[in-house]
Amino acid sequence: MTGTVLVVGEVQDGHLAGGTVEAIGVARTLGDTVVGFASGTGANAAAAEFGRSGIASAYAAEDPRLDNAPVGARLPALAGAATAAGATVIVVAGTTFGRDLVGHLAVAWDAAVATGVTEATWAEGALRVRRPIFGGRATETRRLAGARQAIALRPHAFPAAADAPTPCAVQPAPVGEVPAALLAGQRTAVAAAARGSGPGLTDASIVVSGGRGVRGPENFHLVEELAASLGAAVGASRAVTDAGWRPTSFQVGQTGRAVSPQLYIAVGISGAIQHIVGMVSSRVIVAINSDASAPIFRVADYGIVGDLFQIVPALTAEIRRVRGL
Amino acid sequence: MEIVVCVKPVPDAETRLRASPDGRTLDPEAVKFVLAGYDESAVEQALLLKEAVPGSKVHAIAYGPGPRTEEVLRSAIALGCDQATWIDSGADSGGDPVAAARALAASIASVPHDLVLCGKQAGDDESGLVAGALGELLHLPDFSCVVDLRWDAGAGRFRFQRPVEAGLESWTSPTPLVVGLQQAWNDPRTAKLPAILKSRKATIGHATAAPPAGGVSSPEKFELPPPRTGAKMIDYKTPQDAAEQLVRILREDAKVFP
After folding, report:
1. Is residue B214 in a domain?
2. B215 lies in a domain?
């Protein structure tokens, strides 16, 4: 399919956020021309970073008013840039920001949209996307028809685009009049992400979760040390958060967070369906539990039946050893 | 405060999923539908705000097919919502969240709304598109993944937080606004039996949506993953042995870390 695809990069600390290179890789498979877009303070410099992946043209809405405004304030600039570039498809990484943008693009840019996309291909003039649903218990294929499509990717679902440094010409994308109602809502602060909470958990490529088998908050450091040895996020089962051993922000499961990391290690978690639906789409699942009949072993790829108080410290030590920590 | 809360019926988490005969969607036969998890939190938050701000009213609105959509509205009434409106999706079973947002926005625009609440995403399609689309359609600021939503009566503004990739954001916004809620102040309440019985006789407002424009997003295939065959159990002599075997497997076979 020939056409122009626009990739939206989120600006974090003056640079394009990590998932942007995955979006660029997908955009290359969907069109013959790829252009970039960045917005907010630092947009000009961040947009130039699209050149690292071989993109020769990008748009920047350099305007500090956007930094602390609701996401809708960026839509006029984004839709304007897409029109100026002649783009018919917009691809964005699967962050909170990306998902929010796509909801807006459905209306403001009159696009057929999907989030959490793990595959995107052209088929009979429409964009065909696959996406996990029901917490990874099923996958749907949807046909996005019409003249325009916008998709947000599922984190970690695609490889990063290869480095191919090239000069990137950055053009201004006019922000235009931002409605007063949008500027009245203001972000007032950002605190660094708390460990084990928030998208740190949903974004992590490795998650280590502890359950009732840990027996008490005083033992949870075993789970945390294993996670630290792997650079992983810490999660917990509902039993743990209900008991107050860890805040609810740690909870993985139907009523907590759904995660789909490359590796999920369940420590002392029996595997109630409530928990399973939140982690079953992980690529590789390891379960450590003293009960060989625990349902978690039915969804795990690898299992160790044993005393977690012995297994987990040994595992932490072994990982630290092989990683040279 | 006039609070509108948007809700959706989704299959109960323990429901066995099965593809419909045409293979395009979930087969809704024999599925037990319940109020979506995050929507349950949105209803809880609406009721907590109603209790905190005297003179408030909570209006639950849902778009979808009968009878399950009407049923979740009855459960919202049983929980304490004052009023409910069902927008019948008729033949539209394509599950396009944007079509739902358009129908909801048309209905919300015609009723008082200081705060429009919905769950940050539904447990079935997990799209998370409705809050953003509602914001754009209603020309209101919208915020997804909201926690700790507080009304500051003195300032006449909401204050809330959003756990996002960069960290925990603090926000303030005047009304009206759209909120995609991640978590209420506490776990959702359960309805009491007399309220459930009373809700069966409650009047549910009825609206019909215009057919979705073009049907730009349509389902083609619904697939279930091959059943997991169970874990490869590691046979070991000592904890150190178990650890060494697992690490070797994870590095060399599963290749999940170097």
Report:
1. no
2. no
Task: Give the residue among B112, B110, B60 at the shortest CA–CA distance from B86.
Answer: B60
Burial per residue of A131-141, b for 16 or more beta-carbon CB atoms within 10 angstroms, e otherwise:
bbbbbbbbbbb
Complex prediction ipTM: 0.90
- pLDDT tens-place string over residues A76-127: 999 999 999 999 999 999 999 999 999 999 999 999 999 999 999 999 889 9
Distances B122 to A2, A64, B176, B180, B214 between C-alpha atoms, Å: 35, 33, 23, 11, 23
Within this chain, do residues B239 and B204 fall inside the same structural domain, yes or no?
no
Clarify whether residues B181 and B242 are in a common domain: no
Q: Map tokens 């075993």 to a residue.
A: A222
Is A277 close to B13, i.e. CB distance below 8 A? yes
Nearest by Cα to B115 from B45, B191, B208: B45
Is residue B217 situated within a structural domain?
A: no
Tell me what pLDDT residue B238 has.
Answer: 96
Distance, in Å, from the CA atom of B211 to the CA atom of B99, rounded to the nearest integer, reads 8
Q: What domains appear along chain A, each with residue ranges and CATH number? A: 4-184 (3.40.50.620), 199-323 (3.40.50.1220)
Supply A207's token pair: 């998650």
- For A153, the 3-state DSSP assignment is strand
d(CA B195, nearest CA chain A) in Å: 24
Per-residue pLDDT of A40-84, as tens digits, reads 999 999 999 999 999 999 999 999 999 999 999 999 999 999 999
Pairing of β B167-174 and β A186-192: antiparallel
The helix, strand and coil proportions of chain A, stated in percent and rounded to the nearest 5, come to 35, 30, 35
Contact across the interface for A108 and B142, Cβ inside 8 Å: no
**Are residues A188 and B183, on separate chains, in Cβ contact within 8 Å?**
no
CB under 8 Å to B231, separation ≥6 — which residues? Answer: A285, A287, A297, A298, A300, A301, A302, A303
Interface of B with A in 104-123 (CB under 8 A): 123
| Three-state secondary-structure class, residue A137 | coil
Do B105 and B23 lie in a common domain? yes
The enclosing domain of B86 has a CATH number of 3.40.50.620
Helix, coil or strand: residue A212: helix
The alpha carbon of residue A28 is apart from the nearest alpha carbon of chain B, in Å, by 22
Domain span at residue B244 reads: 225-258
Please check whether residue B92 lies inside any domain of the structure: yes
Question: Residue A85, by phi and psi: left (phi above 0), alpha (psi -120 to 50) or beta?
Answer: alpha
Does B164 contact A at CB distance below 8 Å?
Answer: yes
Nearest by Cα to A143 from B212, B95, B219, B100: B219
A206-260 residue pLDDT tens: 999 999 999 999 999 999 999 999 989 999 999 999 999 998 889 998 777 888 8
Give the pLDDT score at A196. 43
The torsion region of residue B139 among left (phi > 0), alpha (psi -120 to 50) and beta comes to: left
Q: Which residues of chain B carry a pLDDT beneath 70?
A: 91-94, 211-215, 258
If asked whether residues B231 and B200 sit together in one domain, one would say: no
With both helix axes pointing from N to C terminus, report the angle between B68-79 and B37-52 in degrees, rounded to the nearest 10: 30
> B184 with B240, same domain?
no
Question: Total structural domains in chain B?
Answer: 2
